[in-house]
Amino acid sequence: MEKTASEAIAYRRSVRVYKNEEIDTNKVQKCLQNASIAPTSSNLQLWEFHHISSPDKMEEMSEACFNQGAAKSAKQMVVFVSRKDLWRKRAEANVSFLNQQFDKPHLDEKLLKRKKQVHSYYKKIIPSIYIDFLGILGLIKYLVFQVIGLFRPIYRQARLSDMRIVAHKSTALAAQNFMISMAAIGYDTCPMEGFDSKRVKKILGLPSGAEITMVVSCGVRDESGVYGAQFRVPFEEVYFQV
Fold first, then answer.
1. In this structure, are 32 and 82 located in the same domain?
2. N or C: which end of the chain has fewer CB within 10 A?
3. 193 and 146, same structural domain?
4. Which pLDDT value is given to residue 58?
């Protein structure tokens, strides 16, 4: 029986050792479909999910992840990749989709205004944020926005480094969707940051503009793979009601 959201969140642990038990590739793929509907900045979906199940690739990936237990005993892996370099393509996809939604004769004034706003956002605002040249334009935009920010609220994250963070945040949200979905069906995961990113990119044939957000190993937990009781700092130390 599939777990509720709260049950899945409570069940999920970072598993370092998996049983020698195969998992269903189709079920993992379904969990990745859940990942694809995670929240994402400007709906750009600057992510890719590389699902690894072949033994040869698993062996290569395990080595690239330093043969840590969570990698070596895993039955499958998913590499969550941030693709900030695809912002133009994804912006165009949004415009195309929204054009279809607005493809109606005699739009009323409200919808016509909405259509113009959408086109302006993806064709003017998004390029103004993502276009840069050796970091120079980003620095200029940053300084201009700081000055404007003295007088009114304004978006301040306009540098290449800021856009990298935005893309990785969205990809991390997708990864969390995936891990909770896996927990809901009784499968286990471990998000790993211990890996050689250059080797992982080579294994997957990724271009230079792609960046690895995390590698998530998958399997069925061995009891020895959950390292003790879960520790969290007291909720009162992290919760602030304003």
1. yes
2. C
3. no
4. 98
pLDDT in tens, 16-68: 999 999 999 999 999 999 999 999 999 999 999 999 999 999 999 999 999 99
Same domain, 214 and 167: yes
Q: What residues make up the domain containing 147?
A: 89-161
- Asked if 81 and 168 sit in the same domain, the reply is yes
Which amino acid does the sequence have at 104?
A: K
Number of domains in the chain: 2
| 183-213 pLDDT tens trace | 999 999 999 999 999 999 999 999 999 999 9
- Compute the radius of gyration of the chain from its Cα atoms: 21
DSSP track, the chain: -PPPHHHHHHH--B-S-B-S----HHHHHHHHHHHTTS--GGG---EEEEEE--HHHHHHHHHHTTT-HHHHT-SEEEEEEE-GGGHHHHHHHHHHHHHHHT--SS--HHHHHHHHHHHHIIIIIHHHHH--STTHHHHHHHHHHHHHTTTS------SHHHHHHHHHHHHHHHHHHHHHHHHHTT-EEEEE--S-HHHHHHHHT--TT-EEEEEEEEE-B-GGGS-SS-----GGGT----
Q: For 87-133, how does the pLDDT look when each residue is reduced to its tens digit (9 = 90+)?
A: 999 999 999 998 888 887 777 888 888 888 989 999 999 998 898 88
